[in-house]
Design goal:
single chain, 349 residues, alpha/beta, Rossmann fold, seven-stranded parallel sheet, hydroxypyruvate reductase [NAD(P)H] activity, D-isomer_DH_NAD-bd
Length: 349
Amino acid sequence: MPKPKVLHIGDPIKYNHDIYTRFASEFDLIRPTTAERERDAFKQALQEHRWGDFDAIFRPFWNTGGEMGRWDEELISLLPSSVKIIASAGAGYDWADVDIFAKYGILYCNGAAASSESVADITLFLILSVFRNLRWSHTAAHSCNPTQFLDAHTTSPLTARNPRTQTLGIIGLGQIGYTIARKVQAAFQMRILYYDIVRKGRELEEAVNATYVGSLEELLGEVDCVVVATPFVGRTLMDREMLGKMKRGSRFVNVARGGLVDEEALVEALEEGRVSAVGMDVHANEPYVHPKLAGNGKVMMLSHNAGGTVDTHVGFERLAMENIEGFLLRGKALTPVNAHLIRGKGSKL
């Protein structure tokens, strides 16, 4: 029997060389040239059937392999019908229309499980930041200005709170959201509410002592801090209307995708006191950040580094290979994103 063919997009692997040796022995690997990665050249190669009928697409590192731009109907429709799975590094999938992949019977697998620990750790830092006014204190200390130092020293505690006394709301209890909840329980013992489009099982909820809330609006009105941990699916989630439903004086943290939040509306919510502090790892127009948010002493910003550790990159690479092995060799992928959409079309998944 011929080996399944895998299209490897992006640069060579960097970490899991033993696993890649096994992977290369199980499949025929096809490597587009650097020039063929560009969108027009990539489309032309698919139209010419240059790589034949391959079975899977493998993207082991999030920094490369995306040169052809967004995977939309235009691009996905050019793939040979033999393609059954794409496994990519990275937790988010805003670069790919997973519903269009499902339309063509292609399973999309991401690497959220590999980044969960790193993202959750940063989320704890941002939660602590917004409750303890750490941006204020940090800026004052770095100013080398004794007046600013004393102001932060004496005044910032007047609005600081211990997280343990507060209620946390998590939007999205997937791999990352669940890990956040687990770490929050271990570190802060906060009361946790969550909202997700699909309610999780009782066993999972009980493991992190999280209570399901049936609507986003209800969640926003009940919690003292909101954490956005849901994937971006092409639309703004926290717009002016939703921000207006938050409890007055509550905190806001975004570790998902910048496009989920209307940043102009977030500025307004801060200025009017609806939101008292913000922690954000992601931004709507990266690498450019909103100047009014950057200049606000109530906002702690990072440079989209929540998942950015060597451990995460090792896991991304490994998981991309293991998803393809699991699906093509054993019939079951490890971290499918759109399997429910394919099942709805009569698939055997």
